[in-house]
Amino acid sequence: IEMKNNVTEFLLVGLTKDPAIEKIVFFIILIFYIATILGNMLIIVTINKSSTLRSPMYFFLTYLSFSDACLSSTTAPRLIVDSLRKRKTISYDECMIQLFTGHFFGCMEILVLILMAYDRYAAICKPLHYLTIMSKKVCRILVELAWLGSFVHSIAQIFIALSLPFCGPNVVNHYFCDLQPLMKLACTDTYVLNLLVVFNSGAICMVSFLLLMISYTVILYSLRNQSREGKYKALSTCSSHIIVVLIFFGPCIFIYTRPLTTFPVDKLVAVFYAIGTPLLNPLIYTLRNKEVKNAMKKLWTRPVISTVK
Asked: What positions does the domain G-protein coupled receptors family 1 profile occupy (predicted)?
Protein backbone atom coordinates (compact mmCIF):
# COMPACT_ATOMS: atom_id res chain seq x y z
CA ILE A 1 0.00 0.00 0.00
CA GLU A 2 2.90 2.35 0.85
CA MET A 3 4.35 1.78 -2.61
CA LYS A 4 1.08 2.79 -4.23
CA ASN A 5 0.83 5.94 -2.11
CA ASN A 6 4.28 7.11 -3.24
CA VAL A 7 2.60 8.51 -6.36
CA THR A 8 -0.38 10.77 -5.68
CA GLU A 9 -0.44 12.35 -9.13
CA PHE A 10 0.76 11.65 -12.66
CA LEU A 11 2.36 13.99 -15.17
CA LEU A 12 0.94 13.55 -18.68
CA VAL A 13 3.32 14.10 -21.59
CA GLY A 14 0.46 15.11 -23.92
CA LEU A 15 0.39 14.84 -27.70
CA THR A 16 3.39 17.10 -28.30
CA LYS A 17 5.97 19.20 -26.45
CA ASP A 18 6.01 21.92 -29.10
CA PRO A 19 4.07 25.01 -27.78
CA ALA A 20 3.12 26.14 -31.31
CA ILE A 21 1.68 22.71 -32.19
CA GLU A 22 -0.10 22.60 -28.81
CA LYS A 23 -2.04 25.75 -29.77
CA ILE A 24 -3.11 24.08 -33.01
CA VAL A 25 -4.10 20.95 -31.03
CA PHE A 26 -6.18 23.16 -28.70
CA PHE A 27 -8.27 24.64 -31.54
CA ILE A 28 -8.64 21.37 -33.51
CA ILE A 29 -9.70 19.25 -30.50
CA LEU A 30 -12.01 22.03 -29.23
CA ILE A 31 -13.80 22.20 -32.61
CA PHE A 32 -13.93 18.38 -32.82
CA TYR A 33 -15.33 18.07 -29.29
CA ILE A 34 -18.02 20.74 -29.73
CA ALA A 35 -19.05 19.20 -33.07
CA THR A 36 -19.11 15.70 -31.49
CA ILE A 37 -21.36 16.75 -28.61
CA LEU A 38 -23.71 18.79 -30.83
CA GLY A 39 -23.85 16.10 -33.54
CA ASN A 40 -24.60 13.24 -31.16
CA MET A 41 -27.09 15.25 -29.09
CA LEU A 42 -28.83 16.22 -32.34
CA ILE A 43 -29.25 12.54 -33.26
CA ILE A 44 -30.53 11.63 -29.75
CA VAL A 45 -33.09 14.49 -29.71
CA THR A 46 -34.20 13.82 -33.31
CA ILE A 47 -34.81 10.10 -32.65
CA ASN A 48 -36.61 10.74 -29.34
CA LYS A 49 -38.86 13.46 -30.81
CA SER A 50 -39.57 11.87 -34.18
CA SER A 51 -42.59 9.59 -34.64
CA THR A 52 -41.06 7.93 -37.74
CA LEU A 53 -37.80 6.77 -36.10
CA ARG A 54 -39.28 4.14 -33.81
CA SER A 55 -37.55 0.97 -35.04
CA PRO A 56 -35.00 -0.94 -32.87
CA MET A 57 -32.18 0.29 -35.12
CA TYR A 58 -32.80 3.89 -34.03
CA PHE A 59 -33.32 2.82 -30.42
CA PHE A 60 -29.78 1.37 -30.50
CA LEU A 61 -28.49 4.40 -32.41
CA THR A 62 -29.45 6.69 -29.50
CA TYR A 63 -27.25 4.58 -27.21
CA LEU A 64 -24.41 4.63 -29.74
CA SER A 65 -24.62 8.44 -29.89
CA PHE A 66 -24.75 8.64 -26.09
CA SER A 67 -21.67 6.38 -25.84
CA ASP A 68 -19.90 8.52 -28.46
CA ALA A 69 -20.57 11.75 -26.53
CA CYS A 70 -19.41 10.18 -23.25
CA LEU A 71 -16.33 8.48 -24.76
CA SER A 72 -15.20 11.78 -26.26
CA SER A 73 -15.85 13.53 -22.92
CA THR A 74 -13.49 11.20 -21.05
CA THR A 75 -10.42 12.50 -22.89
CA ALA A 76 -11.16 15.58 -25.05
CA PRO A 77 -11.86 18.21 -22.30
CA ARG A 78 -8.64 17.38 -20.43
CA LEU A 79 -6.62 17.36 -23.69
CA ILE A 80 -8.09 20.79 -24.55
CA VAL A 81 -7.16 22.23 -21.13
CA ASP A 82 -3.75 20.50 -21.00
CA SER A 83 -2.76 21.88 -24.41
CA LEU A 84 -2.71 25.34 -22.76
CA ARG A 85 -0.80 24.20 -19.65
CA LYS A 86 2.93 23.62 -19.27
CA ARG A 87 2.51 21.17 -16.39
CA LYS A 88 -0.12 18.56 -17.29
CA THR A 89 -0.87 16.90 -13.96
CA ILE A 90 -3.68 14.47 -13.12
CA SER A 91 -4.33 13.09 -9.64
CA TYR A 92 -4.19 9.34 -8.98
CA ASP A 93 -7.97 9.22 -8.35
CA GLU A 94 -8.80 11.25 -11.48
CA CYS A 95 -6.52 8.95 -13.48
CA MET A 96 -8.39 5.86 -12.25
CA ILE A 97 -11.79 7.49 -13.01
CA GLN A 98 -10.63 8.40 -16.53
CA LEU A 99 -9.39 4.84 -17.07
CA PHE A 100 -12.70 3.37 -15.88
CA THR A 101 -14.98 5.71 -17.89
CA GLY A 102 -12.87 5.45 -21.06
CA HIS A 103 -13.08 1.66 -21.07
CA PHE A 104 -16.72 1.65 -19.96
CA PHE A 105 -17.99 3.81 -22.83
CA GLY A 106 -15.55 2.26 -25.32
CA CYS A 107 -16.89 -1.21 -24.47
CA MET A 108 -20.46 0.13 -24.52
CA GLU A 109 -19.88 1.35 -28.08
CA ILE A 110 -18.56 -2.08 -29.15
CA LEU A 111 -21.55 -3.91 -27.63
CA VAL A 112 -24.09 -1.47 -29.14
CA LEU A 113 -22.49 -1.96 -32.58
CA ILE A 114 -22.98 -5.73 -32.08
CA LEU A 115 -26.64 -5.16 -31.14
CA MET A 116 -27.12 -3.01 -34.26
CA ALA A 117 -25.63 -5.81 -36.41
CA TYR A 118 -27.96 -8.33 -34.74
CA ASP A 119 -30.91 -6.03 -35.45
CA ARG A 120 -29.96 -5.80 -39.16
CA TYR A 121 -29.54 -9.60 -39.29
CA ALA A 122 -33.04 -10.10 -37.82
CA ALA A 123 -34.58 -7.48 -40.16
CA ILE A 124 -33.01 -8.84 -43.36
CA CYS A 125 -32.65 -12.57 -42.70
CA LYS A 126 -35.73 -13.15 -40.49
CA PRO A 127 -38.25 -10.52 -41.70
CA LEU A 128 -41.38 -12.53 -40.76
CA HIS A 129 -40.22 -12.96 -37.16
CA TYR A 130 -38.51 -9.55 -36.85
CA LEU A 131 -41.12 -7.90 -34.59
CA THR A 132 -41.02 -10.86 -32.21
CA ILE A 133 -37.22 -11.19 -32.19
CA MET A 134 -36.66 -7.43 -31.70
CA SER A 135 -39.59 -6.49 -29.47
CA LYS A 136 -39.31 -3.44 -27.19
CA LYS A 137 -38.78 -5.68 -24.18
CA VAL A 138 -35.99 -7.65 -25.91
CA CYS A 139 -34.28 -4.39 -27.00
CA ARG A 140 -34.36 -3.02 -23.45
CA ILE A 141 -32.91 -6.28 -22.04
CA LEU A 142 -30.14 -6.28 -24.69
CA VAL A 143 -29.16 -2.68 -23.82
CA GLU A 144 -29.18 -3.53 -20.10
CA LEU A 145 -26.86 -6.47 -20.82
CA ALA A 146 -24.59 -4.11 -22.77
CA TRP A 147 -24.41 -1.78 -19.73
CA LEU A 148 -23.61 -4.77 -17.50
CA GLY A 149 -20.96 -6.11 -19.89
CA SER A 150 -19.28 -2.69 -20.08
CA PHE A 151 -19.27 -2.42 -16.29
CA VAL A 152 -17.69 -5.89 -15.87
CA HIS A 153 -15.00 -5.05 -18.48
CA SER A 154 -14.17 -1.72 -16.81
CA ILE A 155 -14.09 -3.24 -13.32
CA ALA A 156 -11.52 -5.77 -14.61
CA GLN A 157 -9.41 -2.91 -16.04
CA ILE A 158 -9.58 -0.82 -12.87
CA PHE A 159 -8.78 -3.87 -10.72
CA ILE A 160 -5.53 -4.35 -12.68
CA ALA A 161 -4.71 -0.61 -12.44
CA LEU A 162 -5.36 -0.45 -8.67
CA SER A 163 -3.12 -3.48 -8.11
CA LEU A 164 -0.13 -1.70 -9.71
CA PRO A 165 2.47 -0.34 -7.26
CA PHE A 166 3.83 3.11 -8.29
CA CYS A 167 7.07 4.20 -6.62
CA GLY A 168 8.01 6.84 -9.19
CA PRO A 169 8.72 8.13 -11.83
CA ASN A 170 5.21 9.46 -12.49
CA VAL A 171 5.50 10.70 -16.11
CA VAL A 172 2.84 9.02 -18.30
CA ASN A 173 3.84 8.97 -21.97
CA HIS A 174 0.30 9.67 -23.18
CA TYR A 175 -2.34 12.40 -23.14
CA PHE A 176 -4.74 10.38 -20.92
CA CYS A 177 -4.61 7.50 -18.45
CA ASP A 178 -4.66 4.03 -19.99
CA LEU A 179 -3.32 0.72 -18.73
CA GLN A 180 -0.40 0.22 -21.13
CA PRO A 181 1.40 3.52 -20.38
CA LEU A 182 0.61 3.15 -16.65
CA MET A 183 2.09 -0.36 -16.53
CA LYS A 184 5.38 1.03 -17.84
CA LEU A 185 5.61 3.10 -14.61
CA ALA A 186 4.79 0.25 -12.21
CA CYS A 187 7.66 -0.90 -10.02
CA THR A 188 6.88 -4.58 -10.53
CA ASP A 189 7.00 -7.13 -13.32
CA THR A 190 3.92 -6.50 -15.49
CA TYR A 191 4.35 -9.31 -18.04
CA VAL A 192 1.38 -11.34 -16.73
CA LEU A 193 -0.76 -8.19 -16.30
CA ASN A 194 0.02 -7.20 -19.90
CA LEU A 195 -1.23 -10.58 -21.07
CA LEU A 196 -4.40 -10.09 -18.98
CA VAL A 197 -4.99 -6.71 -20.66
CA VAL A 198 -4.59 -8.29 -24.11
CA PHE A 199 -6.89 -11.13 -23.07
CA ASN A 200 -9.48 -8.61 -21.81
CA SER A 201 -9.39 -5.56 -24.12
CA GLY A 202 -7.63 -7.21 -27.06
CA ALA A 203 -9.92 -10.25 -27.10
CA ILE A 204 -13.05 -8.07 -26.84
CA CYS A 205 -11.87 -6.01 -29.84
CA MET A 206 -10.84 -8.98 -32.00
CA VAL A 207 -13.76 -11.30 -31.20
CA SER A 208 -16.31 -8.47 -31.59
CA PHE A 209 -14.76 -7.37 -34.88
CA LEU A 210 -14.77 -10.92 -36.30
CA LEU A 211 -18.33 -11.46 -35.06
CA LEU A 212 -19.48 -8.25 -36.75
CA MET A 213 -17.70 -9.06 -40.02
CA ILE A 214 -19.21 -12.58 -40.09
CA SER A 215 -22.71 -11.24 -39.35
CA TYR A 216 -22.48 -8.62 -42.14
CA THR A 217 -21.15 -11.25 -44.56
CA VAL A 218 -24.21 -13.42 -43.77
CA ILE A 219 -26.50 -10.39 -44.18
CA LEU A 220 -24.97 -9.38 -47.53
CA TYR A 221 -25.10 -12.98 -48.78
CA SER A 222 -28.80 -13.23 -47.87
CA LEU A 223 -29.56 -10.12 -49.99
CA ARG A 224 -28.99 -12.02 -53.25
CA ASN A 225 -32.65 -13.12 -53.40
CA GLN A 226 -34.14 -9.70 -52.64
CA SER A 227 -35.51 -7.12 -55.07
CA ARG A 228 -33.30 -4.31 -56.37
CA GLU A 229 -35.06 -1.76 -54.14
CA GLY A 230 -34.75 -4.02 -51.08
CA LYS A 231 -31.07 -4.66 -51.85
CA TYR A 232 -30.35 -0.93 -52.18
CA LYS A 233 -32.06 -0.03 -48.89
CA ALA A 234 -30.36 -2.87 -46.97
CA LEU A 235 -26.95 -2.13 -48.51
CA SER A 236 -27.28 1.57 -47.68
CA THR A 237 -27.97 0.80 -44.01
CA CYS A 238 -25.38 -1.98 -43.68
CA SER A 239 -22.64 -0.01 -45.43
CA SER A 240 -23.00 2.78 -42.82
CA HIS A 241 -22.64 0.22 -40.04
CA ILE A 242 -19.63 -1.46 -41.71
CA ILE A 243 -17.84 1.91 -42.14
CA VAL A 244 -18.37 2.71 -38.43
CA VAL A 245 -17.13 -0.77 -37.41
CA LEU A 246 -13.95 -0.44 -39.52
CA ILE A 247 -13.00 3.06 -38.34
CA PHE A 248 -13.64 2.19 -34.67
CA PHE A 249 -12.16 -1.31 -34.47
CA GLY A 250 -9.05 -0.64 -36.59
CA PRO A 251 -7.39 1.66 -34.00
CA CYS A 252 -8.67 -0.44 -31.05
CA ILE A 253 -7.17 -3.65 -32.43
CA PHE A 254 -3.91 -1.83 -33.22
CA ILE A 255 -3.51 -0.61 -29.61
CA TYR A 256 -4.98 -3.36 -27.44
CA THR A 257 -3.74 -6.56 -29.11
CA ARG A 258 0.00 -5.84 -28.66
CA PRO A 259 1.41 -6.97 -25.30
CA LEU A 260 4.50 -5.23 -23.91
CA THR A 261 4.99 -2.92 -26.90
CA THR A 262 4.07 0.72 -27.41
CA PHE A 263 4.75 2.91 -30.43
CA PRO A 264 4.98 6.74 -30.69
CA VAL A 265 2.03 6.63 -33.12
CA ASP A 266 -0.21 5.08 -30.40
CA LYS A 267 -1.19 8.53 -29.13
CA LEU A 268 -2.41 9.67 -32.56
CA VAL A 269 -4.27 6.38 -33.07
CA ALA A 270 -5.92 6.88 -29.65
CA VAL A 271 -7.01 10.39 -30.71
CA PHE A 272 -8.67 8.85 -33.75
CA TYR A 273 -10.79 6.30 -31.88
CA ALA A 274 -11.45 8.34 -28.70
CA ILE A 275 -12.14 11.73 -30.32
CA GLY A 276 -12.33 11.24 -34.12
CA THR A 277 -14.71 8.27 -34.30
CA PRO A 278 -17.37 9.82 -31.99
CA LEU A 279 -17.45 12.78 -34.42
CA LEU A 280 -17.60 10.62 -37.57
CA ASN A 281 -20.46 8.40 -36.35
CA PRO A 282 -23.20 11.08 -36.40
CA LEU A 283 -21.95 12.30 -39.80
CA ILE A 284 -22.05 8.77 -41.27
CA TYR A 285 -25.49 7.96 -39.86
CA THR A 286 -27.06 11.26 -40.96
CA LEU A 287 -25.41 11.74 -44.36
CA ARG A 288 -26.12 8.15 -45.45
CA ASN A 289 -29.60 7.79 -43.92
CA LYS A 290 -32.61 9.40 -45.64
CA GLU A 291 -34.98 8.63 -42.75
CA VAL A 292 -32.79 10.45 -40.22
CA LYS A 293 -32.24 13.40 -42.59
CA ASN A 294 -35.99 13.73 -43.27
CA ALA A 295 -36.82 13.46 -39.55
CA MET A 296 -34.27 16.19 -38.79
CA LYS A 297 -35.73 18.49 -41.46
CA LYS A 298 -39.27 17.99 -40.12
CA LEU A 299 -38.23 18.42 -36.50
CA TRP A 300 -36.02 21.48 -36.92
CA THR A 301 -38.07 23.32 -39.58
CA ARG A 302 -41.29 23.01 -37.54
CA PRO A 303 -40.20 25.52 -34.85
CA VAL A 304 -39.02 27.92 -37.57
CA ILE A 305 -42.37 27.70 -39.41
CA SER A 306 -44.35 28.17 -36.18
CA THR A 307 -42.31 31.26 -35.22
CA VAL A 308 -42.78 32.77 -38.71
CA LYS A 309 -46.56 32.28 -38.44
From this structure: 39-285
